[in-house]
């Protein structure tokens, strides 16, 4: 089983969007997947309540930071959505469970500075230093024509981490989320450009974690 943690202490960078679509990808592939939500607002779990029962199932995994539990036996994948300001006990628990960490990042100076500090903090974590956790970065709401996108490109070029891909700024994610849906729950023709952007991300996800 692979546990994927989506984390960035900066709020509004697209963590829940990334988490729900990750879970939707695995569910659409016919795999047994659960979605955990460490945020007190429980946005990801609220999204699950909107999800039509006719779609591929995504289970709820309740993770209490005070008394953490392992995911249900037999799961193939678990995705953990995390809150803004992630640090201390919640960060430690997330990393203790994680096989892979995806850090979403938007092309703004404030997001870049907050994420740079977070990545430096991640690098100091014991689980990361031992090489047991893989980390990747995903650019969120990126318009390649803007100056801020150029700034983001320059920043990620200096990271010693893989940049898994860049997801465009589109209303598709907003409209689908309002109905408990993901990119993989609608006709491909409707979201073809977005699915293309996800391809390198899912290829990284499908790689088995380091032993």
From TrEMBL:
It holds the Pfam family CbiA. Residues 4-182 form the CobQ/CobB/MinD/ParA nucleotide binding domain. It comes from Paraburkholderia phenazinium. This is Chromosome partitioning protein. InterPro entries: CobQ/CobB/MinD/ParA_Nub-bd_dom, DNA_Partitioning_ATPase, P-loop_NTPase.
